[in-house]
Structures are given as C-alpha cells and as structure tokens.
Design brief:
Elements (H helix, E strand, L loop, with lengths): L7 H6 L43 H4 L2 H12 L1
Length: 75
C-alpha cells in the first residue's frame, strides 16, 4: 500500500463530509458505518482518511457485518 490515498475527490463528489483534522477523516457512524449521505457506507482503510495505518484486515473485517445489519434494519 505504498503511496495509497483514499479517493477523496470521489467521496467529496458523493457528498461525504470530512472532519477538519490533519488526516481528512471522513465522517461516518461508527456503529453502522453509514456516512452523512444516507445509503453510502464506508469500510476498511478508507475510514481512516490519511491515517492509513489505523485500519487493517484484522480490525476492519467487522465493517461488512455492521453495514449488512444496518441495511437489514432499514430496507
């Protein structure tokens, strides 16, 4: 992942907001992984913004079940 950066431009075009921190962290619900845009969820390393060392397979694999559970509740 040398040189990896999240697709900030795409995320901004989708309407996702970001914290005003140094890492340009996207805003999302930590319980459901849904962003401020209804129906758009984040999972994995993209959740950390430029802090790409925050999320790995080992600690982000829970994101998919969280998203699925939220989708089941609302759809």
């Amino acid at each position: 992942m040398t040189g990896y950066q999240p697709p900030f431009e795409l995320m901004e075009k989708m309407g996702i907001t970001f914290l005003t921190d140094e890492f340009h962290t996207p805003v999302y619900n930590e319980e459901t992984m849904e962003t401020n845009v209804p129906g758009i969820y984040l999972a994995g390393v993209v959740c950390g913004g430029l802090k790409t060392n925050k999320w790995f397979i080992e600690n982000s694999r829970v994101h998919a079940p969280m998203i699925i559970n939220d989708l089941k509740r609302h759809h």
